[in-house]
Design a protein that fits this description.
This protein has about 290 residues and is an alpha+beta fold. Helix content is about 25%, strand content about 25%. It has two domains: about 140 residues, MutM-like, N-terminal (N-terminal domain of MutM-like DNA repair proteins); about 120 residues, Helicase, Ruva Protein, domain 3, CATH 1.10.8.50. The strands form three sheets. Strands 2, 3, 4, 5, 9 and 10 form a six-stranded antiparallel sheet that branches. Strands 1-7-8-6 form a four-stranded antiparallel sheet, with helices on one face. Strand 3 and strand 4 form a beta hairpin. Helix 3 packs across helix 6 and helix 5 packs across helix 6. The structure holds a DNA duplex (16 and 16 nucleotides).
DNA sequence: ATCGTAGCCTGGAGGC
DNA sequence: TGCCTCCAGGCTACGA
């Protein structure tokens, strides 16, 4: 969703200046804030690409050898605004852009929790599919919504793991774009418990799970994309669009939409997992 | 090589 | 009312 917006508004614009409001947001940049800015000013932005939570714009002239890379963390947003407007509360980085025609624009990186960040990174060959991606994305698996996503291959690699199925889903090297929410929702749809050992999954179950995952991601995207913030933002008591379509996530003690059994919340990896105890019984052998 | 855990960070919710 | 603690999560560093 973010990517689509960028595609339309900033492709081919030239960076005229850079402001870093919080150095933590560029902490991964190898030569610091100054280097980050120096590598951007005067460059022209190419079309936006995405893999998992990473989003980048190649930097022209062609052939691009580097890109400006954003990691959205859990609360990061990239906003396009007319230059000169009021700063958002958590504005971290502002790139001023001159489009081919029209007045200047801001590309703003807004991030409450500063888990995300921006950097300029060299392009490299992806280990997952051979595509041209920024170096920090090299080891990241293909997103289930990308064309090059190979469900058979991912399924095969998944079942060779020796871990709990949810851990595997959250491993960005295996596949990307799946966080805690989408993992829980897909497991519920596939009627699998999060602690099910990957090596006991039948081929059928793996393919059901990957289809469910894809469905969840497609639906979330259709609903306008979701950021964790949208779960909070509703100050006026209006439930977020995405929240309404969740079957189990964040719904402890409320009825399972399929069988009405109260949803259960378990601690998992210092976080939570939500399951329907009836649709997704804990396996006798279980593995986190 | 593979798997598991702690910690990073901010602010909203809820307890007292 | 205002403080305090808990909790959310993608990723990395590090330990087993």
């Amino acid at each position: 969703m973010v990517r689509r917006g960028l595609e339309r508004q900033v492709a081919d614009a030239t960076v005229t200046s850079v402001e870093v409001h919080n150095t933590r947001s560029v902490r991964r940049h190898p030569d610091g804030t100054a280097g980050f800015a120096a590598r951007l000013v005067g460059r022209r932005l190419g079309s936006a690409r995405r893999r998992g939570k990473y989003l980048w714009l190649p930097l022209h002239p062609l052939p691009a050898t580097d890109a400006v890379l954003a990691h959205l963390g859990m609360s990061g947003q990239l906003l396009v605004r007319p230059t000169g407007g009021a700063a958002e509360r958590h504005l971290r980085v502002r790139l001023v852009l001159q489009p081919g025609a029209g007045s200047p624009l801001d590309l703003r990186f807004v991030d409450q929790r500063t888990f995300g960040g921006l950097s300029v990174a060299p392009l490299a060959v992806s280990l997952a599919d051979g595509a041209c991606v920024p170096e920090p994305v090299r080891h990241i698996g293909v997103d289930p919504l990308e064309e090059s996503f190979d469900a058979a291959q991912v399924g095969h690699r998944l079942s060779r793991r020796r871990t709990g199925v949810k851990r595997a889903l959250l491993d960005q090297a295996l596949l990307s774009g799946v966080g805690n929410i989408y993992a829980d929702e897909a497991l519920w749809r596939a009627r699998l418990h999060y602690a099910r050992p990957t090596e006991t999954l039948r081929r059928r179950e793996v393919s059901t799970l990957l289809s469910a995952l894809r469905e969840v991601l497609v639906e979330a995207l259709e609903e306008g994309g979701t950021s964790f913030d949208s779960l909070y933002v509703d100050v006026d008591g209006q439930p977020g669009y995405f929240e309404r379509s969740l079957a189990v996530y964040g719904r402890a003690d409320r009825p399972c939409p399929r069988c009405a059994t109260p949803v259960r919340r378990d601690p998992f990896m210092n976080r939570s997992s939500y399951t329907c105890p009836r649709c997704q019984p804990r396996p006798r052998r279980s593995r986190w």
